[in-house]
# Entry
Amino acid sequence: MIHFFGNESTTVFAVQSQKELSLQTIAKLNWLFNSAFKIEKSALADFFVGPRASMITPWSTNAVEITQNMGIENIVRIEQFVKVSDVFADFDSMLSEKYNELNQNVFSNNLLPEPVLEIDDIALYNTTEGLALSKEEVLYLEDLSKKISRKLTDSEVFGFSQVNSEHCRHKIFNGSFIIDGVTQDLSLFKMIKNTSAENPNDIVSAYK
# Structure
């Protein structure tokens, strides 16, 4: 069930709960929302901008965790919505959505998972999707596909490209480090790890 807190003329907090809220829980949420009291309505017929139904925000994740630390159970999601005019359009449609009503379906969507896409031609998929895989990497994936006797899926190929991208650096830093034709004992990544291994001191977190 969706419960609304706040001022429907300005800002509203939509709280999704698996059970009815007790008076004690409502009092705690009133405090959490800085005296934004519960609105005794199941729907608010006006224009609001807030997160897309299919996208749970990091803010919501943190808010739900706070309620758990306060001893409040059964809260699934909390999102913030701002009252706007019917012509308001100054928001990022990738992250937010304009609603003409906040109701019990505000967090529902009719999206269905797309079927798994198997890649027939990895080299072509690499080009069309701009994955920037090298020829060696394409050959590696093609050989892997033959080895496991099935086609690779789009998520598998895409995931491989991300893991091996220049942004990740793990592949390069873990590779053999050769200077003037001589392979060094430590790769670049091992050099980084070696620093904390040789001088752990009071290090709390480091590459392992």
Summary: The helical segments are 23-32, 58-69, 122-128, 135-147, 154-163, 170-173, 188-198.
